[in-house]
Every structure is written in structure tokens, then in C-alpha cells.
Design goal:
Layout lengths: L8 E7 L5 H11 L10 E6 L1 H12 L5 H9 L11 E3 L14 H18 L5 E6 L5 H14 L5 E7 L18 E3 L5 E3 L5 E5 L11 H5 L4 H12 L4 E4 L4 E4 L2 E4 L2 H15 L15 H15 L4 H9 L6 H24 L4 E2 L9 E2 L6 E3 L13
Parallel strand pairs: 1-2, 1-4, 2-3, 4-5, 9-14
Antiparallel strand pairs: 5-8, 6-7, 9-10, 10-11, 12-13
Length: about 375
């Protein structure tokens, strides 16, 4: 795996509030690092409406234009960073939010950070360096969490450290390579040439490989993406409620048609009874034993008095053939993948053994499967 500085697209992403200095401080630390400096090819900010205003005036203006000054002072190459790279939180009317004051604002912030990180990590030719040094604490938390969800081996997370008395000083943006005297917050005079900046790299757990592609490629909000990651990390658990014609797999309730549910119940019963895998019925020779095995579960789902029970029994009067089995299994798997995603559904699929002759079974641990009545929420399944 190449080092981050070897990637053709190198991105610095920072969250900021009322102190745009964290951008130039972090850029300086990255670009002047010994060994393998990371010089971004582009910079992105996530901030509030007021934060955007301050960043544009302090960093991108002609005067003081601290971003442009830093590039000139240290001979840095062109870096794509303009107003279009400043992502800000909006209210319901599309107007910039100047601060984060409510749970709804926090939700918008989380979704903005999630979507930005998801988009920036979608490029295999890019390395992302995310800084949590600026903004409210919730901004840094969400950025770190989003990078944990979507980050790849080449991506990094850090916090910038500024020596005293330069930290939180409005006139300080980076250590200058020449003498520049400024006034600190307690009215002392100091020379910016004497400042020291370092980055504290923050290790993070990478969960990207646990997420289904639909969460990597889509636009799901923060809360749904976190829920998907939680489901992926939880041990599989399957509850089958024949009366309500639904299952709960990975914490998600899924309604299943009677045929698909009956077939699923066949394999769940065998697992719980300690019985081995089963071959599918032959394609062109209906199998009476398979039909009776299936119909026993179908009657448990629909009841013996239901009209469609009679029709199903009539259709399988001579036995179940391979096409009936394959079509039902295919529809079942389609439902599971639709609700759980390709990765999330994998433990719950009926496995064919991978070799010929094919023999089918559920590979879940028996302790993870039960029949019973489903409660209102996954937190208390209530099965019995």
C-alpha cells in the first residue's frame, strides 16, 4: 500500500468554526513534516455560515489572504481551495446556519460530514487527511466517526498542536519563515517565527470493509449508516414468526410471502433439530418427500383452512421439483438482500455448500436461530 503522499489526489479535510487558523496551521504541519510531507492537491472545509464567512475573509481574500501567503512563504504548489470547497450547514430553507444549537442542527451536521467523507473516500486514487482541530466538539466527533466508517488504509486523522502563547491567538495563522511580531490574547508581543506546530495523529478503527456497498455508494444519512455498521458487527440473529409471516434478521423485520417463509422454516427447523444439509429436489422428477416437508411448514404459516393452502397442496400433489425449489429460494434471497444488503444478508442465506453435488442448509449457529412471536422492537425480541 503506497504512503498517503504518493497518491495523485491528496485531500485535506478540516472542520472549522470561528477559527479558520486551523486550516493554515494543519497545512503548514503537513507540508513541512520531515520524512514524507503531505502536500494536499485540494482542501475542503466543513463549517457553519459564520465559519464560511470567516474562512473566506481570513484565508481566501487578497488581504490578509493567509492561505495564499502560506503557499508563497513556503513555495507550495497550486492547491485547489476556493469558496466552492467550503461546505456549510443549511437550514430547512437552504440558508446557511451560523451555529449548531438544536438536535436538528446536529443531525444536519452529521449528515453533511458523512456525505462529504463518503464522497471524498470514493476515489481510489485519493488519500484523505482529516483534521478535527476546529469547530465544536460534535463536529470533530462526527468527522472522526465518519472516517472510521469510510476510511481506507491511506487515510489519516489528526489534531493540530500549537505552542504557547500562539494557540487561540487571532493574529496567528502559521509559523512564518521570517520575523513577524503579533499581539497575543493577553497583550504580549511575540514573534510568529518562534511558533511550533505539530500534528497528533489519531489512530482509528476502519470499518469500511464491514459495510455493504449500498452504504458506500449511496447517500444514506449518518444515523442509518451507523446502524448499518452496528448490524454488520453484531453476531447474526434470526427470529422466525410464522404467525405474523415475518422474520427478524440482523435487527431488521422482514415480511416474507408464505412460500418463501415456509422454505426458510424448513432449513431453520433442520438446523435446530441437528439435521444435516439437504439436496434440492430433482429438476424433472417431483419429490414427494420434499413436498411434504415443505407443506408441513406452509400449513404452519397459512393454516389448514386457507384457500391458498389447498391450491399449494394441489400444485405439489405429485411432489416438489427442482424449479419450484430454485424459484422459491431465489425469491427468498432477493428479499433478504433487498432488506439487509448484499453483505448483511450473507449469513442468513441458504448455503449450497459450494461444491457438487449441492446440498443446502443454514450456516447460522443453532443458538442464533429461534421460532417465536416478535416483539415491537429489536431491543426486546420477546421470542418464546
Amino acid at each position: 500500500m503506497p504512503l498517503p503522499d504518493a497518491y495523485p489526489r491528496r485531500i485535506l479535510l478540516a472542520v472549522t468554526g470561528l477559527s479558520p487558523q486551523v486550516v493554515t496551521e494543519t497545512l503548514h504541519a503537513l507540508a513541512t513534516a520531515e520524512g514524507a510531507p503531505f502536500v494536499p492537491t485540494e482542501i475542503h472545509l466543513i463549517t457553519t455560515g459564520e465559519g464560511r464567512h470567516r474562512a473566506e475573509l481570513a484565508l481566501l481574500s487578497d488581504d490578509p489572504g493567509w492561505f495564499h501567503r502560506l503557499r508563497e512563504d513556503y513555495g507550495l504548489p497550486e492547491i485547489a481551495f476556493g469558496p466552492e470547497n467550503i461546505h456549510f450547514i443549511e437550514d430547512a430553507d437552504g440558508k446557511p446556519l451560523d451555529d449548531i444549537r438544536s438536535p436538528a442542527d446536529n443531525e444536519k451536521l452529521a449528515d453533511l460530514i458523512t456525505e462529504t467523507v463518503r464522497e471524498l473516500t470514493a476515489d481510489d486514487n485519493a488519500a484523505l487527511h482529516a483534521s478535527i482541530a476546529g469547530g465544536r466538539k460534535t463536529m470533530g466527533f462526527y468527522l472522526g466517526y465518519a472516517l472510521s466508517l469510510f476510511g481506507r488504509p491511506q487515510d489519516r486523522l489528526s489534531h493540530v498542536l500549537v505552542s504557547e502563547p500562539f494557540e487561540s491567538c487571532w493574529d496567528f495563522f502559521y509559523p512564518t519563515p521570517y520575523s513577524k511580531v503579533i499581539t497575543t490574547r493577553d497583550n504580549k508581543l511575540v514573534d510568529t517565527r518562534d511558533a511550533r506546530i505539530s500534528l497528533a495523529e489519531i489512530p482509528f478503527v476502519r470499518l469500511r470493509h464491514e459495510l455493504d456497498p449500498q452504504w458506500l455508494d449511496g447517500d444514506a444519512p449518518f444515523s442509518e449508516t451507523v446502524s448499518a455498521a452496528q448490524r454488520a458487527l453484531q453476531p447474526p440473529k434470526l427470529i422466525i414468526d410464522l404467525e405474523r409471516q415475518r422474520i427478524r434478521a440482523g435487527g431488521i423485520d422482514i415480511d416474507l410471502p408464505p412460500r418463501e417463509l415456509a422454505l426458510y422454516a424448513v432449513f431453520a427447523r433442520r438446523l435446530l433439530n441437528g439435521e444435516g444439509p439437504l439436496p434440492a429436489p430433482p429438476k424433472d422428477a417431483p419429490d414427494r418427500e420434499w413436498a411434504e416437508r415443505f407443506l408441513e411448514q406452509y400449513r404452519a404459516v397459512r393454516g389448514t383452512e386457507a384457500d391458498d393452502t389447498d391450491r399449494t397442496e394441489e400444485a405439489l400433489g405429485k411432489g416438489m421439483d427442482g424449479d419450484y425449489f430454485s424459484n422459491t429460494k431465489s425469491k427468498l434471497h432477493k428479499q433478504l438482500r433487498k432488506q439487509l444488503g448484499k453483505t448483511g444478508a450473507k449469513p442468513y442465506l441458504i448455503d449450497d455448500g459450494g461444491t457438487r453435488p449441492r446440498k443446502y442448509r443454514l450456516t447460522l449457529p443453532a443458538r442464533a436461530v429461534r421460532f417465536g412471536k416478535l416483539a415491537a422492537s429489536p431491543e426486546d425480541d420477546g421470542a418464546r
